[in-house]
Amino acid sequence: MAQQLSPSPTLTPQFCFTPGALRDFLRISRSAVDDTVTQHLNALVTPAKAGFDPSSTSRPISRPLSHQIDAASCQTFKDGVLFPAWHGRSQVLSYCALVATSPDPDDPEAALREAENERDRERVVNERLDPYSGRFFPREPRTEQLASLVRMEQSVENIVRSRTWDIVSRRCGGSLGTWEHALAAWRKANNPP
After folding, report:
1. Which of 85, 90, 131, 169 has the fewest CB atoms within 10 Å, i.e. is most exposed?
2. Would you state the pLDDT for residue 73?
3. Which residue has the higher pLDDT, 40 or 57?
4. What is the 3-state secondary structure of the chain?
5. Would you say 37 and 140 are in contact if contact means Cβ atoms under 8 Å apart?
């Protein structure tokens, strides 16, 4: 099965600090593999090994809703499509999490935040005269915004992987264990970059 995976982006801090680019990569990768996992698995089933039987259309045949897929085809799909996509997304999220915890000397809003904080320190707060005068909502540094985005996307990733693995487990049969163990075993066996 020749499946074209979405290529991993060049990992730079600028990529991480561009929320649209990060989200687009994750969305495209998820839609190419996880959102269409049923179609990928259906493509592995060979419905008519002996050829097409024209009489099969003259009467209804009850078939199971999900065909069991042979183990070799399932393993090929997992090793060649599923796990590489998951690994690529994990690498991007790990890199961006690292960027979010690193110092950010190039933050374009650092001076603006400092000016806002200075004005807040000079502000007179009298909540009797103005009950809203005590409110101050400082801008978050972009590293904190990135950390929040990465945490949210990692949660989404865990949900997506759990649902995908549930479908793969049902269709491929057998005891496949958890997706975490399966991915760890694949990484150990393949030593991806």
Report:
1. 131
2. 87
3. 40
4. CCCCCCCCCCCCHHHHCCHHHHHHHHHHHHHHCCCCHHHHHHHHCCCCCCCCCHHHHCCCCCCCCCCCCCHHHHHHHHHHHHHHHHHHHHHHHHHHHHHHHCCCCCCCCHHHHHHHHHHHHHCCCCCCCCCCCCCCCCCCCHHHHHHHHHHHHHHHHHHHHHHHHHHHHHHHCCCCCCHHHHHHHHHHHHCCC
5. no
